[in-house]
Amino acid sequence: MIGRVRVKTRQKSHRGWPAILIGVALTAAPALLPAQVSLATVVDLAQRNSGAVRLADADLQKAQAALSQAQDAYIPSLTIGSTLGYSVGFPTGQPSIANATFQSLVVSLPQQQYIRAARAGVQAASLALKDAREQVALDASTGYIEMEAVGRELDATRQQESFAEHLVKIEQERAEAGVDPLSDLLQAQLTAAQIRLKRLHLQTRSATLAQQISVLTGLPTGSITPDSASIPEIPAVKADEGVRTTAGIESAAMLARSKQFQARGEEKAGRWPQIGFGAQYNLDSDALNDYSTYFTHFTPNNYAFGFNIQIPVFDVGHHAKFRESAADALRATVEAEQAQRQNEIQITMLTGNLRELDALAEIASLKQQIAAEQLKTVLAQLELGNGASSGPAAQPQLSPKAEQLARIDERQKFQDALDAKLDLSKARLTLLRALGHMEDWLHELHAK
């Protein structure tokens, strides 16, 4: 069962003011240095700036207007007018100076189905708006987290590049002194070139992410610096723990229900009678015509009222319309079922990938710790010696290039751990959305 959902199209919250103020400040002063902006603020700005959210909000307003139109059929309508004109001879119409018409629908079984269809349409549009907001929140969150991770990787790569340049100088001196072969110098230069290429790749990736965040939030490119402290821990939700239905799937199911009500209304319209009430008042005059010449009982004030009963007997058009609406309802139902199955497949795939990513993140973290410990060992040996006695079996003393190689390796393992953690975080967020827990993440995000 899907309950009724009420979404306000105009949300007023004190929590949104910081996001608006930050957005105005950054937009008005694009020449300023990049400012540190929290993840919650970026998500709020992205939801306010999103075209998909605005389109979903427009669809909700349209659905609400359609519901009002269906309900207003029972509210009497009043129309006033005039057919004032000059005529000679036998009058061709009623000489009305002013007229008023009052009419409304009284009893209609099809209209009740149309109202239910419109009400279900409002719920479907409300859920679609919620789904659009959650999708934007997911895009903004993953982009922000990736930009923060890439920034840290870029810092580590710059450190690597510095160590590689130092390594090249050491190898060049050792090669000139005849201690190491030329191949060691070439290998050091290759390592430096590879690190330089990686830095260029990360800079391009960082610029692309900055542009994506700019498009999402509407702020100038490069005006946002990620705040690591604003990123909460992403909960490790599993597929067997409280699976919910996503807003998108609920919206598709509710839209199918709306189509079904519409089809029932078309079916009843071709079988059941409907009753309406009407009243009319005319103020007539024979000043500009010969009406009183031909009609002896002329009165200026005339009125009439009564009920209008329409009983369908043979209406091929309504039957065809019913078949069209029934086909639309069937299509919407199948699409909702397909969306549910696709989401279940996605959950299964994400669950399997998460196990692998979790293991890869653990391996990368252990490798980083090992590299850090090995670096400490190398530094200690360079400072104190290798602790071995002199002699043929003694291990050779470590050279300065061993320190640079250990530092480069430690920074590489650090970046690998960041990449593994990033992939794990993105997969967890995607699984949260597939399981219908995205709203919990947003609450935790704003509570951070």
List the helices and strands and how they pair.
Elements: H1 17-28, E1 35-37, H2 39-49, H3 51-71, E2 77-81, E3 96-108, H4 109-176, H5 182-217, E4 224-226, H6 247-269, E5 274-284, H7 291-294, E6 301-310, H8 316-384, H9 400-434, H10 438-447
Parallel strand pairs: 1-4
Antiparallel strand pairs: 2-3, 3-5, 5-6
CATH fold naming: Outer membrane efflux proteins (OEP)
Helicity level, as a percent range? 55-70%
CATH classification, class level: Mainly Alpha
Radius of gyration from CA coordinates: 37 Å
What's the main sheet like?
4 strands, antiparallel
The CATH homologous superfamily corresponds to: Outer membrane efflux proteins (OEP)
Beta-strand percent range? 5-15%
What average pLDDT do the residues reach? 86
Structurally, how many domains make up the residues?
1
Question: How would you portray this structure in words?
Answer:
It is elongated, with a radius of gyration of 37 Å. The chain has one domain: Outer membrane efflux proteins (OEP) (Up-down Bundle), CATH 1.20.1600. With 448 residues, the chain is of the alpha+beta class. The chain has 10 helices and 6 strands. The longest helix has 69 residues, at 316-384. 33% of the residues are buried. The strands form 2 sheets. It has a 4-stranded antiparallel sheet. The protein starts with 16 loop residues before the first helix and ends with a helix.
